[in-house]
Design brief:
This protein is an alpha/beta fold. The protein is 41% helix and 8% strand. Strand 1, helix 3 and strand 2 form a beta-alpha-beta unit. Helix 3 packs across helix 7. The longest helix is centred in the first third of the chain and has 28 residues. The N and C termini lie far apart (64 Å).
Length: 308
């Protein structure tokens, strides 16, 4: 029985590699990607109405980005394709990212229509399936890999780790960046196991912030602002321009944007976090920074910063 399961797992991995290679072959071979236009082999800076990249390539002419075409060489994994994650995926797709890996296990509901991305006719579809279909229509040049499962379960965690380590633009290479767009502590800690050190502002579960008998409130404006800030920093990090923020908060009630230079905690309880901090420090000669828990809430810290 165990041998049969192992053979099936190996076959699944083989099929995934073949699928990734076929997607790469189609992307390089041109043709209609399902988005109403043919794939574009090379980004052009020509200023014409038919060039979907003309406004993006203008960043080179303005001296902001030295090599915008490099965006096509990167792979980004987005964990959580909800209010923030879906808009983040759309922005990166429009920017011409090389490949996106999407992870979520939820389905689209009519209750999600307060968001900027999903549409009523997609109700009942898995979020990753609906997102992939919409994103392919927006930009057929981008490669997509959708995974409809919960990354925190034992049976899915190994596969999640495998795709983060091997799901890059070139199969077998790791992704370049993992974006945490989840709304629960368990998922964040799971992501922290495979990604660079992750800072959680408060050691509480978001479930404790919800009121009894009341669903979680959210505005499309807030999600759009947060997604925009996230993608802006992703682009700055990948294309090496501007200054990447360690932490940038958003208080929608007062239009307040607090910033903090947050560093990994060398005394973190997660041994995987400590291990990766050590590896990162050795690779990039990052000076050790000790972060102590003051016991204050995020709201108290933000209030202090505002009064500075």
């Amino acid at each position: 029985m165990a041998e049969s399961v192992e053979r099936l797992q190996q076959r699944v991995e083989e099929l995934e590699r073949e699928l990734a290679q076929e997607r790469s072959r189609r992307a390089l071979g041109g043709g209609d990607g399902g988005g109403g236009r043919a794939r574009i082999a090379n980004m052009s800076s020509e200023v014409v109405d038919s060039n979907p990249y003309s406004r993006l390539m203008a960043l080179k002419r303005m001296g902001i980005v030295s090599d915008y075409e490099k965006i096509r060489t990167f792979t980004v994994a987005i964990v959580g394709v909800g209010g923030v994650g879906s808009v983040t995926a759309e922005m990166l797709t429009r920017c011409g990212i090389g490949k996106l890996l999407l992870f979520d296990y939820d389905k689209v509901e009519l209750a999600n229509m307060n968001r900027l991305f999903f549409q009523p006719h997609q109700a009942g579809l898995s979020k990753v399936q609906a997102a992939e279909h919409t994103l392919r229509n927006i930009n057929p040049d981008v490669l997509f890999e959708a995974h409809n499962y919960n990354i925190t379960t034992v049976e899915n965690f190994e596969h999640f780790m495998n795709r983060i380590s091997n799901g890059g633009l070139e199969e077998g290479k790791p992704v370049d960046l993992v974006l945490s767009c989840v709304d629960n502590f368990e998922a964040r800690m799971t992501i922290n196991t495979c990604a660079p050190p992750l800072v959680v502002a408060a050691n509480i579960d978001e479930k404790t912030l919800k009121r009894e008998g009341v669903c979680a409130a959210s505005l499309p404006t807030t999600m759009g602002v947060v997604a925009g800030i996230l993608v802006q920093n992703v682009l700055k990090f990948l294309l090496n321009f501007g200054t990447v923020s360690f932490y940038l908060g958003y208080n929608a009630m007062q239009d307040f944007f607090p910033t903090m230079s947050m560093k990994p905690n060398p005394q973190c309880d997660d041994r995987n976090c400590r291990k990766q901090q050590k590896e990162y420090k050795q690779e990039d000669s990052v000076p050790e920074v000790t972060v102590e828990d003051s016991g204050e809430s995020l709201e108290d810290l933000m209030a202090k910063m505002k009064n500075m």
